[in-house]
Specification:
Elements lengths: L4 E10 L8 E11 L4 H14 L22 E2 L2 E2 L21 E5 L8 E3 L2 E2 L2 H10 L19 H11 L6 H5 L6 H12 L8 H14 L10 H5 L7 H15 L2
Parallel strand pairs: 1-5
Antiparallel strand pairs: 1-2, 3-4, 3-5, 6-7
Helix pairs in contact: 2-6, 3-5, 5-6, 5-8, 6-8
The structure holds iron/sulfur cluster (SF4) and FE2/S2 (inorganic) cluster.
Length: 252
């Protein structure tokens, strides 16, 4: 085999739906280029399965550029795979070796029921956003960039938190299945901006309440979420979410 081509053994979670038990199924995929992305490697497997009239492996993807948050799977026990700050769609096969065995599983969380194979329902994250992760006042058209002065510290903090793409890796990695990092990123983002002040108090209370209602676990500071987050969202945002929540309870 030439040095940029690999044969891999894949152990992939196959499951018809949330009500049917799933299991790991073994596949061999040949002629994988080291230049392919992880999802392109799965495309190769699926083309082979389709040729053999077998059901392809279902997985989510959209932009394949690390910006939309649609892709997500656990690769060898790590959400989004072994590369720091990288979504699985941006993980390339050069980080694996010819002959490797790779285990691929869906996000596992009570709040993310499996739809099929590697596809899970992340509607619970959408409902947390719908509970308060928005600005409902009419802020008019986009003003000139310098019309609303915002301190550099606030801008940087808001931008860092706004980098969250809603992928759910933080939930999958957390031993408690907590969505605290995701929710904290959204609350932190808006809490730093003038537009976010109008509903600031209700936002934290409502989003945290929705997070609890969806069946996510509590944060107990394991920091596994921060370790796998492809956008390097800091767990400091969780400390800010807690302050925002307390502020929401006492400020009228
Ligand atoms: S905090 Fe990070 S891991 Fe969690 S949803 Fe946002 S981008 Fe994904
Ligand atoms: S497919 Fe958009 S972030 Fe991976």
């Amino acid at each position: 085999m030439s040095s940029d081509r690999m044969t891999l053994r894949l152990r992939i979670w196959r499951q018809m739906d949330a009500d049917t038990p799933g299991k790991l199924v073994d596949y061999t995929v040949k002629d994988v280029s080291t230049h392919m992305s992880f999802l392109e490697m799965l495309d190769v497997l699926n083309e082979d399965l389709i040729r053999k009239a077998e059901r392809p492996v279902e997985f989510d993807s959209d932009c394949r550029e690390g910006i939309c948050g649609t892709c997500g799977m656990v690769v060898n026990g790590m959400a989004h795979g072994p590369l720091d700050g990288t979504t699985v769609c941006q993980l390339h096969m050069r980080h694996f070796q010819d002959g490797d065995t790779i285990t691929i599983e869906p996000w596992r969380s009570r709040a993310f029921p499996v739809i099929r194979d590697l596809v899970v329902d992340r509607g619970s994250l959408d409902r947390i956003i719908a509970a308060g992760g928005y600005v409902s006042v009419d802020t008019g058209g986009a003003p000139d960039a310098n019309a609303v002065p915002i301190s550099k510290i606030s801008v940087d903090s808001a931008m860092d938190a706004a980098a969250c793409i809603g992928c759910g890796a933080c939930v999958a990695a957390c031993p408690n299945g907590s969505a605290a990092l995701f929710t904290a990123a959204k609350i932190t983002h808006l809490s730093h901006l003038p537009q976010g002040q109008v509903e600031r108090r209700e936002r934290a209370l409502r989003m945290v309440a929705q997070m609890d209602d969806e069946g996510f676990g509590n944060c107990s500071n394991h920091a596994e979420c921060e370790a796998v987050c492809p956008k390097n969202i800091s767990i400091r945002t969780i400390a800010r979410m807690r302050r925002e929540y307390l502020r929401g309870l006492v400020v009228r």
